[in-house]
Amino acid sequence: MTEETFGVTCQATVKASKRITADNADEVRELVLGVDEPAFRATPGQNIGVLIPGPHPFGNPYHHRYYSVVSAQPSGEGADIEILVRRCSYIDEVSGEEYPGIASNFLCNAAPGKQITLTGPYKAAFKVPADKTSNLLMIGTGTGIAPFRTLIKSVYAQHGGWQGKVRLFYGAKSGLDNLYMNDQNNDLANYYDEATFEAYQAINPDPYADVGETLGKSLSQNGAKTWVLMQMPNTYVYLAGLKKQVAVFDKVMAEQAGSAGNWQALKGRLQAEGRWAELTY
């Protein structure tokens, strides 16, 4: 596997790296990547890939990870691209040992001036439906809130007059984790006055609590009305963040559907009709 395997690549320079969560919360950093290549045009909501040179486990020369573009501002002949990165770790299922996440730690440790190889940009996983009466159901954990922030902005600030229901379920370990939900203008809060918008923040004060379980409780508490929304022919379902939340969501919806089979049938229909999208890691 060579760098060419990943298609179009370009070099970016870390222009800024700032921690935006408190010291007693999970580390989340806001990175600004300067791209001088005019042909590399990314827009908020799209994804870019980051190539981390190896060697890596199993002899892989590169490690590839996707991140959502939070903002992209013109700079010279290129652009400054902002992404959010949570420093992650994982537990080896065999040994039980904890290891640092390759991409997240590489980026969180990258000081200004560091050169990084990007791939893409890729099409946005989450698109605003053409029909303004469509319902949007968004479920996110961790930095998975980033693409939804962009999506909600587009729904209300750009399209206007949105009539469908917009529902956001967001799981966090503590209220401090929510600091990176909003930009300097507290943009998500701007939409709480919208008649069609509701957000449910699932927060557990226990720092060792499983964020997936916390999110699952919030979904269960609102399961009945969420199930009604799921069955409407104009509802779109978007999931972003930790991969484990897909299993949590499946479990909650199976309970509402009466069986796992009933839920999988509806989920299959959503996928077949292009009304289901995931961006999980």
UniProtKB/TrEMBL annotation:
Report whether Oxidoreductase shows up as a keyword of the record.
yes
Pinpoint the FAD-binding FR-type domain residues: 7-128
Q: Which domain of life is it from?
A: Bacteria
User: One GO molecular function term?
Assistant: oxidoreductase activity
PROSITE patterns in the cross-refs:
FAD_FR
Record's keyword terms, sorted: FAD, Flavoprotein, NADP, Oxidoreductase
**Signal peptide per UniProt:** none
Matches recorded under InterPro entries: FAD-bd_FR_type, Flavoprot_Pyr_Nucl_cyt_Rdtase, FNR, FNR_nucleotide-bd, OxRdtase_FAD/NAD-bd, Riboflavin_synthase-like_b-brl
Look up keyword Oxidoreductase and say if it applies: yes
Q: Which Gene3D superfamilies match?
A: Nucleotide-binding domain of ferredoxin-NADP reductase (FNR) module, Translation factors
Which cofactor names does the annotation list? FAD
Family matches, as PANTHER family: PTHR43314
- This chain's protein is named Oxidoreductase FAD/NAD(P)-binding domain protein
| Protein species of origin | Thiothrix nivea (strain ATCC 35100 / DSM 5205 / JP2)
